[in-house]
Amino acid sequence: MFPGAGAEREAADYAVVGAPLDASTSFRPGARFGPRRVRQFAQGFDDFDHRTDQHFTDCSVHDHGDIGPTADTAEYLTFLEGTLSDFDSDGAVPLLVGGEHTVSVAGVRALDPDVFVCLDAHLDLRESYAGDEYSHATVTRHALSVADEAVVVGARTGSEAEWDRASADDVTVVPPEDAADWTPDFDGADVYLSVDIDAADPGFAPGTGTPEPFGLAPRELHEAVRAVAPQCVGFDVVEVNDRDDGQAGTLAAKLLRAFVFAHAAAE
Fold first, then answer.
1. Which residues, in sequence order, are bridge partners of residue 96?
2. Measuring CA to CA, which residue among 43, 37, 64, 208 is closest to residue 122?
């Protein structure tokens, strides 16, 4: 169980759902261990948040546990989408913990946001990768089949075709050097926030599948999550694996808690 997430399902305002999919990882596998790592390295955090004057244990967070993947990724996403939709219908904000970034597709489909905001090193705008239309490199493209626009904060790499697609009016790229000064302004729109942990510079979070240098500092991720959270209908943190000493898992767990505190404080 995620520490402090002891609320009963019926009374929950937030629902942690583990999604240990690890089907299309293109470099270093291990994303299947992400939910376990995030829960493990959240153990040492204080319950109290000084910034919002709240206790995590008072935020009505329920941990649903993990939904194990099936052999068919499309089938798995459909099942995961149904679970997240059920929580949304019950009034609980889904907090999805990956697993590879592909699981975000289920979150976006379930919650139907106006805007998809992603903290990510990669554009993820490919049509497919290695012949897989559900590769973790296609997530933003899938999100744009639901959301009206996408904002990718921290992006610093992509194919030529992806950068061409990113120049369209429905995509905004905030490079790492501009992230600290980025101020979200979505004019009341419903937002889905996805945090690919590789948005962080690998010096801070090496435990991820496709590390990319010259990324965001943890403080920049923290400020972005806190700024976007009040307008969010859902959240995920993905791409944590077991290839470090807990740096990525610790950062992911802290960002999840920061999202809950900022979202709850705005209610």
1. 17, 236
2. 208
Q: Give me 196's structure tokens.
A: 């690919």
| Nearest-angstrom CA–CA distance, 61 and 12 | 6
DSSP H helical ranges for 90-138: 104-111
Say which residues have a Cβ less than 8 Å from residue 257's Cβ, sequence separation at least 6: 42, 45, 49, 56
pLDDT in tens, 86-135: 999 999 999 999 999 999 999 999 999 999 999 999 999 999 888 878 88
Instruction: Provide the residue type at 153 as one letter.
Output: V
Distance of CA 234 to the CA centre of its chain: 9
Beta bridge partners of 83: none
Question: 193 φ, ψ to 5°?
Answer: -110, 125
CB 191 within 8 A of CB 9: no
Distances in Å between the Cα of 3 and the Cα atoms of 38, 47, 62, 77, 99 are 10, 9, 10, 26, 19
Q: To which H or E segment does residue 85 belong?
A: helix 73-89
The model's pTM is: 0.97
